[in-house]
Amino acid sequence: METEIWKTSFGSFIGMKREHCTSFLGIPYAKAGRFEYAVPVSSYGESFDASKPGNACTQKRTYFEHLEVPERMFYHREFRDGIPFRYSEDCLNLNIYKPVLKDGRKCPVILYIHGGGFDSGANYESPFDGDALAKRGILTVFINYRVGVFGFFAHEEIQKEFGHDGNFGLDDQVKALEWVRKHISEFGGDPDNITLMGQSAGAMCIQDLMLSGKTNPLFQKAIMMSGCGQLPSISCPRPVEETREYWLDVMKTCSCSTFEEFKKLPPEKIFMGLEEVKKRRKDNTKNTMVQVDHFYLDSYTSEDFKKIPDIPTIVGFTNNDMVTYIWAKIAMKYGNAHKAYKYCFDVDAKGDGNKAFHSSDLRYAFGTLKSSWRPYGEDDEKVSETMMDEFAAFAKTGSPNGENLPLWTNHKGKVLDISLKGMKMKRPPYWKLFFNTFSGDPK
């Protein structure tokens, strides 16, 4: 690939020319010590090599891939197989896909937050590429943030130092948004036209950022894929004070009696301790996700959801999502309350019996079907092209409608049904979603 040097007021970046864009990868947006809130990075020198991705956050698969677990193997093969990941606690970086700029106008921006259950994931897994959206005039940014223990550890010593604790990963996302808002215009992006997009845990984080109210000026639109709506109380974010007991248990299991000891413990020993804790506790996920920290979130109630601003929003789910029927119901309730455009992704995956599995819509949304092992065909490509056209139109104007595109309304009881037979407005196929929820997951 041919390189391109892009000069800005805060440094020069060496990127790689693509068919429809230039990619600038691994750009640090902030720095943070372990269990410290990040500080922005804003100077990069005369020649920053942005030709390859940066580090992903150190996470469980760094030391415990657990590919003998069917679900772990499934998603490894789906999104990570063959990609040489580098893991480090120094991981706060982003990838920019800058379209070819022709007329001097600023491009709409999509900033994407990856999923992974709050404890895994990276911004350069195989679905995440901005070239196809760049063809449509969209500048795309994919961010890394801290996950798992490094993203959501809580301790009263942190509270004493910073005035709040927990939610390092959520704070990282805010820092990335602030960086993009401040600097993206020098890459040709419009800082006043930013769409925040995420899937699964990434979508849930977007909702949390809107619930917070602290970040509303930083983005104007949202796309939440398989992860919006108020979860049942048993799965809602917990008060940070209640999660500290879990982390004290982890510290004790790691033979650390003080916060300072744990802060200096080698990461592999932390994950060895976490493996032991997970064998005897069933509340691990509840303690390693976004918390009610009294800084970004004061509470997580139905009344709070009513106060979320009605910015232009797309929400969606797949026909074989995680607990499909429940996800669909809460997404519909959220979408109806906030006048969102809603979709049901009803394209069964080819190559096995997994139907439209959780996250199967990602490759269609980013035009990366060809990087999959699955035997996608022309019918899938057609769905992907239309889906990207709609998302691009939404990023530009706040409406997914456009010339020669299927009509997509925000009618309360209907979704845009996305299938190989076409796209049209209809009621969600609740009978299918209910059956898929209880018929067993073939993965």
What is the typical, i.e. mean, pLDDT?
Answer: 95
DSSP summary, beta strand count:
17
In percent terms, what proportion of residues is strand? 15-25%
Low-confidence stretches: none
CATH classification class of the largest domain: Alpha Beta
Task: Tell me the domain tally.
Answer: 2
Q: Tally the helices: what do you get?
A: 16
Q: Please identify the structural class as seen in this structure.
A: alpha/beta
CATH topology of the largest domain: Rossmann fold
Gross morphology is: globular
- Beginning-to-end CA distance, first to last residue: 37 Å
**Portion of residues in helices?**
25-40%
The profile of the biggest β sheet is:
13 strands, mixed
CATH superfamily of the largest domain: Alpha/Beta hydrolase fold, catalytic domain
Regarding quaternary structure, what we see is: single chain
CATH architecture of the largest domain: 3-Layer(aba) Sandwich
What value does the Rg take, in angstroms?
Answer: 21 Å
